[in-house]
Description:
four-stranded antiparallel sheet
Amino acid sequence: xxxxxxxxxxxxxxxxxxxxxxxxxxxxxxxxxxxxxxxxxxxxxxxxxxxxxxxxxxxxxxxxxxxxxxxxxxxxxxxxxxxxxxxxxxxxxxxxxxxxxxxxxxxxxxxxxxxxxxxxxxxxxxxxxxxxxxxxxxxxxxxxxxxxxxxxxxxxxxxxxxxxxxxxxxxxxxxxxxxxxxxxxxxxxxxxxxxxxxxxxxxxxxxxxxxxxxxxxxxxxxxxxxxxxxxxxxxxxxxxxxxxxxxxxxxxxxxxxxxxxxxxxxxxxxxxxxxxxxxxxxxxxxxxxxxxxxxxxxxxxxx
Length: 303
């Protein structure tokens, strides 16, 4: 999820009562609700470094609690009259909430790292969900009065979880509906959320030799899914896979779409993650140029 949503969630938890557990508790909740994204510093080493490290250790069952412990220690030293137990509780809840909410999206989170670096993504909500943002903002604004703030914050958090739970049920229905429109031999199937309409889902399916893509509506007519034949891989593509950026990207991408073109430099091997494909612009792409002599002449990655 985006950091505004994370911040508002942390503040809602504080207003719901956790902020009253001690001095610095509200600050701990808001900071901890964003703390796992400290891995943004890896962007200084380039986009490939960021993709390799983002939502990895700082978002894992090992790294997130350690980050919470460090935050609680720093706040205990800087906030007068604070108690370590309260700060640690709030910090742990903040980072746990952040990781939990990131799992809702389609980007993915390596929550089991470093024991298992598999990307887990539940595909339930869009990475920036305007309805969640609106609900949190409205609930906190309406509860700005101290008399009713705690109750309204609790109701707001409950409604947010109810909304996400409802989207999870719709997601399950979308997967079932998509499966009936596909041939046998599905290797991987995803229903990706629409940012506004909970009843609209984007279907991606891998059947080995082809991808099937299209839009699915749970409350209206749905056109047939489109078949996209995969391009066969040869020795040049195998060589491109050995490039560092290709390795990082293909580890991340669930639905990599391959294109091979001849350029003055050599053979350009390009993979696009179909989850983030948008008409008119390229998102989540890596391009590896293999020279005629087999050298990696150039490698790029952007999103």
